[in-house]
Amino acid sequence: MALELMRDQIFSYQDSQNSPALNMAIGFLHFAKHERHMFQFVYLSGYKSIDLSQEVFAGETLSMKPMLHSKRFQAIDEKKQRNIFINISIYLIGVGTMIHSGTLRMDFHDAVNMVRNMYEALISYEGRPS
Description:
Layout: H1 2-11, H2 20-34, H3 36-44, H4 60-64, H5 71-74, H6 78-101, H7 108-127
């Protein structure tokens, strides 16, 4: 139930000037900042640990859908797409945790730019020829 509420919150952020993936990331940062107790329960309580070699990251299939709108993302094989998703998710959780705890004192727009830059770096890295 908590994950459902979180997904609803994350996917409710919409800005037509952004890609669906960036809207999802911004929605996540808003969730971390404004839904403090729910964020803490889902990400900081330790109620579940995930072994990425054995199972799917929380909401992975649903959360990757916005990324599939990107032609650059689609051009990357599925294993590398998953690597991008996992890396950006862990980065978002880290930034979200710092926003949640108040240890990251920066303009929200700057935090969004950090996430955008990390996504672009991951796309470039994983999309390069082997």
